[in-house]
Amino acid sequence: MHDTPSPGAIRVLRVAVPTPLRRLFDYRAIAPPAAGWQPGLRVRVPFGRRQVVGVVVECREQGELPLGELKPVAACLDEAPLPTDWLWLCRFTARYYQHPLGDTLHQALPVLLRQGRPLAGRVREEWQLTDSARSGDAEGLKRAPRQAELLTMLAQHPHGLATQAVLAQGYSREQLKALAAKGLVARRETPRTAADSPAGKHLLGEPALPLNREQAAALAALHEGLEAFHPCLLHGVTGSGKTEVYLQLIESVVARGRQALVLVPEIGLTPQTLARFRRRFQVPIVALHSGLTDHERLDAWEAAASGRAPIVIGTRSAIFTPLARPGAIIVDEEHDGSFKQQEGLRYHARDLAVARAQRHAIPLLLGSATPSLESLHRAQGGDYRHLRLTRRATRHAPARLELVDLRGRPRQGGLIPPVLAAISETLTAGHQVLVFINRRGFAPTLACHACGWLAECEACDARLTLHRQPAMLACHHCDRRRPLPAACPSCGSADLRPLGSGTERTEETLAAHFAEVPVHRIDRDSTRRRDALERMLGEVRRGEPCLLVGTQMLAKGHHLPHVTLVVVVNADAGLYASDFRALEHSAQLLEQVAGRAGRASHPGRVLVQTLHGDDPHLRLLADSGYDALAVQLLAERRAAGLPPFRFLALLRLESPREESAVDLARQAAEALRAWLAERALAVDCLGPVPAPMERRQGRYHLQLMLAAERRSRLHEATAWLAAWLEATPAARRVRWSLDIDPQTLA
Ligand code: ADP
Ligand code: ZN
Ligand code: ZN
User: What CATH number does residue 70 fall under?
Assistant: First the structure.
């Protein structure tokens, strides 16, 4: 740490700029903003031949170079620095994930702030009648009746009315400006304060539910530590009332004048979820989802940073939302894969939530029906408090999985006759059926029955998926598309047939079989248009018998009370995958899908089709449930020295030229091993090995894995490796990246 120089003595600013280079850049300070130079101020600086927006990270009296050799900052963009805690989180993230600080800061900012736009909204704009308007000098509005109405309305607010309120009444900014130009209204700016947020009295829009015994115990445990870092795992089946516990924790946080940050998975932030929060609370709720415009996102950021919004709900990136008065962080479905960013800055929002709650000394609540093995391990070891909800709040026991043997049975659209019979029965009884199939498109691939040719992507080690709506072959790894061939490209035969089933084919089969009920297909293709999903679900919620065919988009978040039968078309994908987390993830998915069945007044059934009905893991899951399987998986991870018993980091390398990637990977491994040996550092270096899909998008992929029992050791080694790669000329011709705590080895 450097001593902070006195404001007048600051001549050099160390700035983080958005570049892949892992260093800061020195610039000469210009005249400071009113509050003086401080870390967290955005500046525009010359960088190469461009100007970029950077963030001041350190202020110094002098740098390494003589002052005369430094370029001056072009402009300071802020009057006040960005929030200190936000800056802290970005620095923590950059260090932990071995990612360049400049790029981390860049990604953690709303687009408009990255572009150098001002952080507006810190002041509140209000409009008030002028003295001359009050003395009745409103002539000349005869031909502008709306302006006259607006003036009358403003007259009823002698202390002024905020722009937002005026716009909400259906008037426009132009009308305000026109009145101002005529000298009839005056514009005034007042600083926004926390007092703008409605006070505790009118917090609730509807009463909280009386909690059952387990919920009450969980809430009481949370209340024990509202002023301290207090990590808890809320572990309860779907429908056991976790969300109700979140709502009541938020209530106490907001009642104390603090803010709650709620992270939900990408597919969990549904209008239904938001509506539930908005019904419960009358205070402003900021929702950060992918549908926001850049301006809305900036507004949301400001509302959270200023403290105006007591409740912030968002997906992964919302972890970077600054909070003026943090009071609690909640991560719903904490096991969900969408919390980990899989490219660029590969952070895990749940893990950052832990760090952030610790920094703020506030409670952290991780909720799940199927906790990640990481969180479960910590709860069992006592690092997290383990709060259990074992019963469904609405009485019905969760449905058990029934395994259905696929071997030697004819399939139609992936479904065998007894399963089709069960679907028929359910529909006849007037209920709804959910058919879960984890593959979109018509069929996983197209095959030639004459010669055995399979449609493959020329750029990836992968088959092309056959789509019918619209008809094409598409690679789900690189998005390459090809028209359907009329004949086999290899032997010329016209006997080309789809192999296996995807959502489109299952939909087609079901529509033919059950012509009397509607079939709704829900996957990425059918819900591309905005609101398509909500429209379909709206229809489903009316409760008429129907069939839903969908991918994991349907597995969470959506409340489907009329579904009493869930069919899993194929449970086998995760059983024998090379990835060590595949089993954990498919078990979580199966439980989540099963959780959709029989939530309301009818008990549900879950039929799981499999070719491996005697697989011990699948049996354990079906007979004893996720928790029992988790115990078994943890024992296996311990024996294999895998997370959460050891920590991993992955170096990924890719290049269009196989030799370049292989050579660099070998050199890196050799250098790292020598360095580790010299220091006797307890870190294993495994590989390099080809990635599970070696060729992807026409590039070769390799990886090197680092494993250690102590995280600090792993970090020392990865930091050294990053520095080595930066200093090695051959590494410039190969794309490389580090993944700390990788969620997948793909
Ligand atoms: P989860 O988040 O664990 O899936 P929810 O909080 O959504 O569970 O609760 C499931 C259903 O049970 C919801 O309809 C909710 O309103 C209801 N519920 C939750 N807690 C209670 C309670 N204490 N009393 C009555 N109903 C409850
Ligand atoms: Zn052929
Ligand atoms: Zn491809």
Answer: 3.40.1440.60
Judge if the beta carbon of residue 393 lies within 6 A of ligand 1: yes
The amino acid occupying position 512 is: A
Establish whether residue 236 lines the binding site of ligand 1, counting it when its CB lies within 6 angstroms of any ligand atom: yes
Ligand 1 pocket, 244 CB below 6 A? yes
Domain check: are 263 and 360 in the same one?
Answer: yes
* Same-domain status, 275 and 363: yes
Scored b (16 or more CB within 10 A) or e, 133-147 reads beeeebeebeeeeeb
Tell whether 392 is covered by a domain: no
Q: How far apart are CA 193 and CA 274, in angstroms?
A: 26
8 Å CB contact between 192 and 308: yes
Residues 490 and 558 in one domain: no
Containing 612, the helix (H) or strand (E) segment is none
Report the pLDDT value the prediction gives residue 195, as an integer from 0 to 100.
45
Which residue(s) pair with 185 in the sheet? 129
Residue 288 in domain:
yes
Residue 577 lies in a domain: yes
Residue 398 pLDDT: 67
What residues pair up with 707 in beta bridges, in sequence order? Answer: 648, 684
Give which of 291, 299, 302 is closest to 266, Cα–Cα: 291
471 plus 594 within the same structural domain: no
State whether 627 and 714 are in the same domain. Answer: no
* Residue numbers in the chain where pLDDT is lower than 70: 1-5, 7-8, 120-124, 137-139, 168, 190-201, 393-398, 530, 556-557, 599-601
Residue range of the domain that includes 150: 123-195
pLDDT the model gives residue 592: 86
Q: Are residues 593 and 692 in the same domain?
A: no
- 392 Cβ below 6 A of ligand 1: no
Output DSSP code: residue 670.
Answer: H
Whether 424 and 558 map to the same domain: the answer is yes
Determine the distance separating the centroid of ligand 1 and the alpha carbon of 291, expressed in angstroms: 28
Ligand 1 center–CA 282 separation, angstroms: 20
- The predicted pLDDT at position 372 comes to 98
User: According to the model, what pLDDT value does residue 551 have?
Assistant: 87
Q: What is the pLDDT of residue 122?
A: 52
Considering the domain architecture, whether residues 670 and 540 belong to the same structural domain is answered as no
Structure confidence by residue, pLDDT tens digits, 167-210: 767 788 888 888 988 889 988 776 655 444 444 457 888 888 99
Q: What is the pLDDT of residues 4-21, one digit of tens each?
A: 667 668 899 999 999 988
Classify residue 16: in a domain, yes or no: yes
Give me the number of domains the chain comprises.
Answer: 6
As a whole number of angstroms, the distance between CA 284 and CA 198 comes to 8
Residue/partner pairs of 531-538 with CB below 8 Å, 24 or more apart: 534/270, 534/271
CATH of residue 241 = 3.40.50.300
Query: Which candidate, 44, 365, 91, 90, places its Cα nearest to that of 229?
Result: 365
- CA 394 to ligand 1: nearest atom: 12
